[in-house]
Amino acid sequence: MAAPRRGVNASRLIACPILFIIVIGMIIESMRALASSAGGADTLDLAASIEQGIRPEPGYLARFVENNGLDHPSSACGDALTRARLTVALAALDAAIKANDKTLIEAAERNALAIAKRRLVCHPLDGNAWLRYAMIDAQASGPSARVVDELRLSYWSAPNESWVIDARLPFATRLYLAGVAGFDSEYLGDLRRFATYQPAGQVAKTYARTAPQIQALLHPLIAAQPDARKRVILDEINRLGVAFDRR
Questions:
Q1: Can you list the pairs that 238-247 forms with residues at least 24 positions away whose Cβ atoms lie under 8 Å?
Q2: Where are the domains of the chain?
Q3: Model confidence over 15-71: pLDDT tens digits?
Q4: What's the Cα-to-Cα distance from 45 to each of 22, 42, 88, 222, rounded to whole Å?
Q5: Average pLDDT, the chain
Q6: 8 Å CB contact between 163 and 198
Q7: Helix/strand/coil percent split, the chain, to 5
Q8: Beta carbons of 47 and 87 less than 8 angstroms apart
């Protein structure tokens, strides 16, 4: 006697294609995750090399940015990766500027601004990122009230970090000498920290080589240093051929 035919279950007919679609979707997402992870690892490695002083050539950096998706918006918010992406983007911009390649500069500015903005969305208290955002913004659009606001957020979120001050002071000095207003008290605070905590030789060299307007701000700050430190600074200033006491 022939076995009775089993009825076709409609739910099975529906479930099989749905299951197939789900599996394919999971495979695609896994592949994307693996590609993203690999790109993230490459970015972290390159950023570490850059921070150690390696300076890749502009073409390589431009290709790396494109091949690793740094020229596209990212949803990544991890501290290490967003910082690494910003490091690479800034290196690409710096290399493009040094190569004087207008096309590379324009693309690198857009990428660096977008990556710095993402870094700040994820980590709004990163004073170095605020500084870099202000520097890129000024490079792309010129000094403006917006740039001053960004710079002041850097002062607010990183008032004492020497490695941030080292980069912020030259940039802020250029703005100050250009007549940009709105950050005078913050700038003077950085100058005071610089005169008080940086190596005496560096303070003396900066004083001897900076513009008279900045010398006028630094003079009382140096004069207020403890006697032993002040003596070392003044001896070095005099050695560099600048008469500190004439002011």
A1: 240/204, 240/205, 240/208, 240/209, 241/208, 242/207, 242/208, 244/207, 244/219, 247/215, 247/216, 247/219
A2: 35-123
A3: 555 555 554 555 444 444 434 444 588 889 989 999 888 888 988 999 999 888 888
A4: 34, 5, 10, 42
A5: 85
A6: no
A7: 75, 0, 25
A8: yes
